[in-house]
Amino acid sequence: MQENDGVLLNPVETCDNNARHDDNEKQVQAIIADEVTHFKKHNLSVAKLAAICSKEKWTTLGRSFARYWSGVFDEEVFYDLYNAQSLNRTMAIDYCRELAYSGENVYLYIMEIHKKKKLDDEFLVGIYRLEAECSGEDIPQIDKAPEHIKKMFWQQADYYMTSKYIWALGDKRF
Predict the structure, then answer these.
(1) Is 158 exposed, middle or buried (0-12, 13-18, 19+ CB in 10 A)?
(2) Rounded distance, CA 80 to CA 58, Å?
(3) What share of the chain is helix, strand, coil (3-state, %, to 5)?
(4) Which of helix, strand or coil describes residue 138?
(5) Is the distance from CB of 31 to CB of 4 less than 8 angstroms?
(6) Taking the model in full, what pTM does it have?
(7) How far is CA 63 from its chain centroid?
(8) Splitting the chain (174 residues) into consecutive groups of 10 residues, what average pLDDT does each group show?
C-alpha cells in the first residue's frame, strides 16, 4: 500500500470547519496527481482505464487527466475518453471543460478533430455550450454552427446563462 493512501482510508473529519475539508481535498488531489503521473510514466493504457471508468455513474477521470496529464489538450487522451462512452461522453466533456476553464482554447482543437473524424452531434452541442460559457463578451461560435446543431443548442439552452445569449436577440432567425 502506498504511503499516501491513508487520507482515502482515514479522512479527516470535516464537520467542525472548512479547513479540514480543504486539507482532505488537497491530499486527495495530491494522490490523484501522483497516480496520473505514475500512469503516464509507465505508459499505461488510458483507453482501458477510461473503459473501466465509463461503467461508473460518476467519474472524475476527464477532469483529473485535464489537470494532471500535461495541462494542455492531448488528442490521444481526448480520443480515449471520447471513445470510452457512446452516450453523453461526459469524460471527454469534463476533460475539455477543465482545460477550457484553465485558459486552453479546446474549441479549436475539437473543430480540427471534427474535420478528421465526425464527432457526434450531442457532443458538439456540449462543446459549443462550453465555448459559449468561456467566450466572454465575444459572440459564441454557435452562431456559425450548422443549423441542426444550433437547433439542438437552443432546445437545451441553460436558463442560468441568459446573459451569455443576449447577442442572439439581434439574430432575426429566432
Answers:
(1) exposed
(2) 17
(3) 70, 0, 30
(4) coil
(5) yes
(6) 0.81
(7) 6
(8) 54 63 86 94 96 94 96 96 94 97 95 96 94 82 92 78 65 52
